[in-house]
Design brief:
single chain, Immunoglobulin-like, 3 domains, 5-stranded antiparallel beta sheet
């Protein structure tokens, strides 16, 4: 065989080796990609908007729900489990912590939820009672399918209340409302010169007419949870009531 022919064969062999190595690397890359997707699907659930971290900016003068949702994407029911990772929460705030089964007056270390059907949703909810105080909180929980504990996500709440610490404090005299729940007329104790409004659970003002002789007509409100927000001389108090 001539030297030129050997050089051509050698060049072809080098090209073949390069192509083979490239395919191997591409195959490895595909393997990584597909393994990643497989791991995600094996996890059995997806997070709200595909995000594991959510930020909330509530006001300091009323309770607010900070909720993270997730969905069962398996073809069978799933039991979600969760475990506390980090809780950096102001002592001046009060809290309610809820899963899809129970609510608690503090953060749980670890628990499981009620079973969720295929395509069903569940959530973890932190209700913040800021007591008029500006501060920040960071809460993290690990979340996983109880039957597949090796695949976990860490979900994070970032909660920022930017105002209130210097200018807002609770009114000393507690305002009373009754009956609660109410059907049509809500009795409200003396507000003095306090300004007030009624807001719904989303924070929208739905009524700002002062009570007449301590009585407020709420018959036009839809059934649900509401808050009376009283403000006087830089002080604020929020009282909840339920409209039937």
């Amino acid at each position: 065989m001539s030297a030129s022919a050997m050089n051509v064969m050698s060049a072809k062999f080098r090209i073949f080796v390069l192509m083979k190595n490239s395919l191997n690397r591409f195959g490895a890359l595909l393997g990584i990609v597909f393994c990643g997707v497989g791991s995600l699907l094996a996890q059995g659930f997806e997070l709200e908007n595909g995000k594991a971290e959510h930020t909330f900016y509530p006001n300091a003068d009323m309770p607010v729900d900070c909720t993270i949702h997730f969905k069962n994407i398996k073809k069978s029911p799933i039991v979600f489990a969760y475990e506390k990772v980090i809780v950096d929460f102001p002592t001046v705030w009060d809290v309610s912590f809820c899963d899809n089964r129970n609510c608690f007056a503090s953060f749980l270390d670890k628990d499981t939820m009620a079973k969720v059907a295929p395509n069903g949703e569940a959530s973890l909810k932190i209700t913040v009672f800021p007591n008029g105080k500006a501060d920040t909180a960071v809460v993290k929980y690990a979340l996983w399918d109880y039957d597949n504990p090796s695949d976990r996500d860490t979900i994070t709440w970032n909660i920022y209340i930017r105002w209130g610490a210097e200018t807002k404090t609770w009114i000393t005299e507690a305002v009373q409302v009754y009956p609660n729940p109410v059907v049509d007329v809500l009795n409200v104790s003396d507000l003095g010169n306090a300004a007030f409004d009624v807001v719904d659970s989303k924070g929208a003002v739905v009524k700002n007419t002062a009570p007449i002789d301590g009585r407020m007509d709420v018959s036009e409100l839809a059934a649900g949870l509401y808050f009376i927000r009283c403000q006087s001389v830089g002080k604020v108090q929020t009282i909840s009531f339920v409209k039937k």
